[in-house]
């Protein structure tokens, strides 16, 4: 089977008029003036996340702008399909999915192992241990028995890009298991797929300086062109490998193909792939790996991974602006855009997505788009300080809700005659640290009610998100016009306190009355409200 990713129409997209079709990679700018491609249209959201990174990587590899002025010109006037085709054809031989030579994202050597069902290649699929233990309750075994080449290559790229832990010697992705990706995307004016790609492409010189561009052999750019290396550092690889890393040693079975319906996209295919082979001891990518599309943790020297609870405005610190306390810095592309490229009249968003994984399991796929608020250079410092105070206040108050719930469910209130205050002891915590901040962390991390706390967090961030953006807009507008802004901070504080009580009530007062300890609920609720309205949070907000 021959299936070259430059030649074939395999990328599912949707055009401005709502029609859907498949295109070749270089056709992303086809009919750009009249009916442009506006978005990817894969049958799974994780496929869309993988495909946008594939296209960004392909353009970064073959068509990167030399200077900022060239980047700006091609943002306003998209290149022709012929220009893109010419550029992409320079790597044509490295993007063959089948054939007798090296295959895209597949091990250079033949793998003599027992075939695995093709659905095991999907992140989150029911694999051997799950089936053996009969735990495939939500993701059923044998739901996918055959994939067309288009869906199969997307599945393969999704795995190599996001690879979770897979057992001894089965490596995680270059950025770790379940990395978070943050992209800049347009809104209204810059709303095509080309714009979404081009916003996230660095100038050639800046990209090539990120690691060892002197390692310019083809196999250092595309690792499937040579025998797998056991260990890879940034000094061992060309920057292109950020996009084309291959931690897993996989080989698709392309000799015994079948005809039928692809179980992913439901299209008829004469080349259904039903199995693959895999061996451990793939390439281990050593931190730091400062991938241009992922936020970075300065403490661990690793990319930020997707965490439970989803993506919301609470992640602005470290995702959009620097988080000096948490030592997180935004992805290189976000930093580059905010500091070098943005214009105050542009309306743009941050698209954040990734798999939340635990060991070998994918717990959830998170996908969110957040507005970016552009400000002038003279207001940047104030802007970042304001964001930090707004988010930190919301984090403290969200934590207070969980502590109040913890007190109701597991706490024992005791009156201290010396301080004349109520102190709480907990059934599942023998001794609390004297330091208040460490005690708070201990209380929040020790609960057995993990799912309840996740629900509280999810609802709290969802309910306050719109108010956050409107508050930030109002404060920045006031700062620009040199007007007072305390009224907006007061409004934000009031909104957080009000939502905290609503979340507490919703989770503590909705059960049968006979199951409610009214005394503990009343006491915990009062303390929650008093602390949220106290000097600590108000000082944090500058009130």
N- and C-termini, Cα separation: 68 Å
> What integer value in Å does the Rg equal?
26 Å
- Work out the number of β strands: 18
Largest sheet: 3 strands, antiparallel
Helix content: 25-40%
The overall pLDDT, averaged over residues, is 88
| Contiguous helical run count | 17
* Shape designation: globular
Class computed from helices, strands and strand pairing? alpha+beta
Strand fraction: 15-25%
Major sheet: arrangement of strands? 2-1-3
Unreliable sequence segments: none
Number of discrete domains: 2
Structure description:
It is a single chain. The chain has 543 residues and is an alpha+beta fold. The chain has two domains: 345 residues, no CATH class; 164 residues, no CATH class. 38% of the residues lie in helices and 15% in strands. The protein contains 17 helices and 18 strands. A hairpin with a 4-residue loop joins strand 17 and strand 18. The protein is globular.
Task: Give a quick rundown of the structure.
The protein is of the alpha+beta class and 543 residues long.
Blueprint (SSEs and pairs):
Layout: E1 11-15, E2 20-23, E3 37-40, H1 45-62, H2 68-76, H3 81-88, E4 116-117, H4 128-132, H5 149-162, E5 181-186, H6 193-198, H7 204-208, H8 218-221, E6 231-232, H9 241-244, E7 249-252, E8 258-261, E9 268-272, E10 275-279, E11 284-285, E12 296-297, E13 302-303, H10 316-319, E14 328-329, H11 332-341, E15 348-358, E16 361-372, H12 380-410, E17 411-416, E18 421-426, H13 436-446, H14 450-480, H15 486-508, H16 518-532, H17 535-540
Parallel strand pairs: 6-11
Antiparallel strand pairs: 1-2, 1-3, 4-10, 5-15, 7-10, 8-9, 12-13, 12-14, 15-16, 17-18
Helix pairs in contact: 1-5, 12-14, 12-15, 12-16, 14-15, 15-16
